[in-house]
## 1
Amino acid sequence: MRHRHPDSPATEHLVIVGNGMAGHRLVEALVKQPGRPPRITVIGDERVPAYNRILLSPLLAGEMTHDALTLNGADWYAEHDIALVLGERVTDIDLQARRLTTDAGRTLDYDRLVLATGSRPAMPPIPGLDLDGVHAFRDLDDAAELIRFSRTRATGHGGRAVVIGGGLLGLEAAEGLRKRGLAVSLIQRDDRLMNRQLDVTAATLLQRELESRGLEVITEGHIAGFEDDGSGHVAAVCLEGGRRLAADCVVVAIGIAPNAELGRTAGLEVNRAVIVDETLTSSDPAIHALGECCEFQGTTYGLVEPIWRQVEVLAAHLAGEAVDGYVEKPCATKLKVSGVSLYAFGPTEPDADHEVLTYHDPQQGDYRRLLLRDGRIEGAVLYGDTAMGPWYFERSLAGTDLGPCRQALLLGAADAQLLLDSPEPQDSPLKEAA
Ligand SMILES: Cc1cc2nc3c(=O)[nH]c(=O)nc-3n(C[C@H](O)[C@H](O)[C@H](O)COP(=O)(O)OP(=O)(O)OC[C@H]3O[C@@H](n4cnc5c(N)ncnc54)[C@H](O)[C@@H]3O)c2cc1C
């Protein structure tokens, strides 16, 4: 459905709260719009302008320098006539007065407000979570602290790190610290790594690969608490069942919690995150939300791909352009651990009506498993050679009937496409070759 800006007067002053990946991308999109609001203010509580948060993982692993994370500097905002306020946290929004307040006591009136406050690491209620040496992995400060720690403890000092959480973020943190020379144990509560994306076979291949590099992986590990070294610093992670893992550094990466309190306190409709409609408008027509702090039709976000689509919709909407509303689409997952290639989307477990196609070459470490329903792909897990991943994903989104290229489906995109395009599949070149 195409939407036009509500028939309110044009936005004079747009304020964006949060200078993270969504807020920054929104500003970049807005400056390209002829109908951009004449006055834009961005307020972020981090001390530096927005950076590429995704690249914190390669930064931690020592595969990238700090400079590579830079998006636009403060001068770019000035050039585009955008006021950038950094190091200040918005603490209060008065919906009636359309006024916000920051922790520095600044007040600012707005015509339209965008919440792009992202999320924070979810912290489990574990005794000892406040000890020194227990970290999250969300921002530049976290990455800097972990890098500093690994520099002082890695060489010859027997530095030991424990990472809690065997999802994407936990794995990237664990590999980063291992590459920096620490002895790392990773604790995963589930019975396999990346249980939301991988089936047992792919998760086992991944675990073996990481273990062969020296990472200790503990699955079905339940944390009982953290041990204090007597000076307020963490000394160990204790598991239920009595096992004790010595640790000078702990990274908690068990998930994220949307930063929705600002909207909730102001009186916006909030569930897990700020509820928005297909124009990214909250329950107050003057306030929008996007990125990890918003919730659309019960979905909250943790990857940038859908957020980029939200940005396009909201930028056009704010500039008064007619625009198709935001729609939810499936996402594919990749892991940023160098030397490990995996690609996955859709359900991890087949249901009774799924047809399961599998290719496994243990020698090469290649694994592909497809879940088909009525000849259409609903899910895929690829480990090793993932070249076919995007091809499967596109066909899955398009709902293409892959019956005609079934025999080549697991072999390669070129072969499968050839059969798919062939008007008479029975005369396909593959069959002739066979
Ligand atoms: C290490 C790491 C690796 C990742 N890798 C990937 C990946 O490979 N692929 C992928 O798709 N996604 C990845 N992600 C997730 C991706 O970074 C997020 O989905 C994305 O950053 C969300 O953008 P956002 O703007 O909603 O939130 P953020 O980028 O977190 O930005 C929110 C900003 O708002 C600020 N803020 C919060 N409250 C206030 C307030 N009251 N006042 C002012 N400012 C405030 C925050 O400090 C922050 O700067 C990764 C995340 C991390 C941490």
Note: Residues 17-23, 43-46, 53-54, 56-57, 89-90, 116-118, 137-138, 169, 259, 262, 291-293, 302-305, 307, 336 surround flavin-adenine dinucleotide (CB under 6 Å).
## 2
Amino acid sequence: MLEAFQDQGYVVFPGFLDKAEIDTLKAAVDRHVSAQPRRHAYEDEHIGALIWHPRVSEMVDELMGGRYVFHHIHAARHDAGMEGVSWHQDYEQYPQTNRSHLMVHVFFYLNGLNGTIGDLLFVPGSHRFATDSHALTFLGDSDLPGMVTVDDVPPGSVLIVHSGMWHARRAKPGGEDSPRWFVDASYCQSGVRWPSYRASGMLADLRGRHVAAGGTRPWLFDESQFFDAARARELSGSLEGSVLLDLPQWKTP
Ligand SMILES: [Fe+2]
């Protein structure tokens, strides 16, 4: 599994969650998508607890090979007729220059994928090349050389992908009788600071809930490993030339 992940950038666990977990999470996602006013997915008791799901954590532990931090969790219900998503990648970095540390996305397909509503597309190996996420938008969801289509996985399947992997969702007809319940959670390897949009309140809240639930991984929610992505986004618009020249190693050879 580890070798395949290093090389290809993904690993698939068909039917990973059990029936009770699937049912609880589907109900939670339904509540989340219809909540007014809108709330963040992490605020839901069950969606939040998925962040430290014991068997998922074991897999992420293996891939990270050491400490890491939680980045975000999103939940959505894809109903029939849902639009697709163009090719992009979700590795967080300003500017995109390297892939020294691992960031992963864990995709939960609560009732699987069956070729209706939307297929997951990705290009194995594409995670090795630092690419601005928006650079790929012009490709839409067109076929790319070597791409893999995921359109047949059973309920409760989990995919872990390198966040820098190019991926898309291709809209498909059908699915009027059954939407796709989808959750994605993301984690970043410790050792560098990562961009985040709302780290402080979210992390403190989750850390408290995790510990209250008997969790032993408060280090997942360490604010000090993040910086403000909004500020970074602003500043990255004013970069000039080769930013490598600003490194202390370059200044004092
Ligand atoms: Fe994505």
Note: Helices lie at 2-8, 19-34, 45-49, 54-64, 199-212, 229-236, 248-251.
## 3
Amino acid sequence: MKWPNHGGQPETIKQLFKLKEDVHIHDFSANLNPLGPPAWLEEEISNQYHTITSYPEPSYLKCSISVAAHESIDPNMLLLTNGGAEAIFLIAKYFENLKAMVVHPTFMEYERACKHYHISVEQIMFEQENEFGLPIQTMCEKLKETDVIFLCRPNNPTGTVINERDLLLLLEEGKKTGTSVVVDEAFVNFLPASVPSLSSWLATYPNLILLRSLTKMYTIPGLRIGYIMANPLIINALRDDQIPWSINSIVDAIVPKLLDDVQFVERTKDWLSEQSQYVYKKLASIDFYHSPSQVNFYLLRDKKQPHRTEELFHFLLQNGILTRHTHNFKGLNGDFLRLAIRSKEENERLLMILQKWRNET
Ligand SMILES: Cc1ncc(COP(=O)(O)O)c(C=O)c1O
């Protein structure tokens, strides 16, 4: 079976599993915000229509200043990118031919980017038995031979958040061994206020590189916008390697407005807090494991029948629920499914189908 590499592809899955075209699928496989995009965005995009007849200003100065102000950093510590994906590949280019460490299970594009730029990768595993914590001792022992560590925080697919103590240790030791720490914060704005971004650490740690994406929070995978935050020397080098006009003029104009919409993010956090509590409580009551996620997706496994995950995937699909398989997440081997937290109605439907699975199997 050739499983798709990413979630959010209901049409491909329908063809793969020969489902009828008109079957309605609830897509729990992509980890996008179900409240988005913000309601005003459609009109604002058409208001910016006139910008497409000119090249964007190549340094994106106005937009960069506004994003930097939002992050409370200097604009020369910021580079706008064509989504988080371009950010990952630009950073890999910066470490071309060197040695990286990637902690799995995690987003597969770090390894793909490393391969593309001939970076050798040491694969380390999160400690599944320890709530997917970092094997910090092992990592520290290997720092001398490591030029860059790729971390995802919150991590895709587990939704877990690496603790600050471990990160501080890696950054401190990394200063001594010349190791940079890349932290992909694509999902950081789903976290509760008690777990802040690491942007305030950039001033202390020149070996810290942060990646962001606006894709997930604002449900705009088609627009392509992300950014990198790092010390100015790194940012300058990355800018030299970036394709000219990588960000289109419409995006350039609307990013400041997206970041200004604080209420949208707050509404999202309220929905997430309410719905995740509801979903996790119910899952526990019908004997399903969920990873200790702090964001809008989690790993699921049937505690009573842990080796029937593939059958569970098919059962859910036949009942109109698409989940994300985990065959291409190293260390998970398809043993879990990744699901998004969706709207109240969709979550209720999911839980009803899981109850049906419990009753019938
Ligand atoms: C952890 C992580 N980083 C980055 C990306 C890429 O985001 P973008 O769509 O902005 O390129 C994804 C997309 O799934 C992701 O899960």
Note: Residues 10-30+263-360 form a domain with the Aspartate Aminotransferase, domain 1 fold (CATH 3.90.1150.10).
## 4
Amino acid sequence: MTRRTVLRAVGVPLGVAALVAGVGAAAGLWGADPEPPPAVATVSWEGVLTAPTTAPTPADPTPEAPAPAPEPSAPAFDLTRHSTTDPTSPWVVVNKQHPVPAEHVPPDLVDVAPGVQLRADVAPDLAAMVEAAAPAGARLGVLSGYRSYRDQAATRAAIEARRGFEHAERYSARPGFSEHQTGLAVDLGSGTQPGCDLQSCFAQTAEGAWLAEHAWEFGFVVRYTEANTEVTGYAPEGWHLRWVGRDLAAYLHGAGVGSLEEAFGVPGGPVYAGG
Ligand SMILES: [Zn+2]
């Protein structure tokens, strides 16, 4: 006799029978016993069938199947799932101690705005974030994404020429040391206060404030903050977002981890590898 026929026999509708059987099977109540005992369904005064809450006692004294292993509690977040050194990895850590090979070009760049490219995986999360920010009064513009080694060299040289070496060291990576070369980093602008674009006052704009609170929901981290300057080696940049994917971003947010360096135990800081 099968469970289904037992339940039919007591007049239980088939859909409910399947549910009850599913509950029993999911709980591992019958183990490997080929002839499991019937589930004892109960009917409330309203006539609503409820699944049995205790394991049914086997009618015949067959040897007990080994008890199923207890369900593990919520597993710890696996921080080893992706490489932190492969420049194509979503979790690659690029900083002044960990450069990107000069010849590296991301494999799957797509256009996300006029003249701006990012990795294909980043584009939908960026679009969703820009769309979600608008009703909150944050008008995000997409200023800059992937930069080749050569572009970064030009950007850095321009900043150095305009603001001097010390300023450039704090705000602009030397070529080969920029996250922008991975195609996973994006600089966003303020539609409400464009005068604060790429400036420290960006953090106080509607866009900067919204990003600080919500970027993680879309798989991004504000890479350089007031709190992590020592470990990242960069002054705060509320506009520079790094995509790491929603699962890692949510983990970092929930655990209160302030930088990729701290999350993965990767050295960073203000000193360039090789001096
Ligand atoms: Zn940037």
Note: Residues 130 and 140 are 6 Å apart (CA to CA).
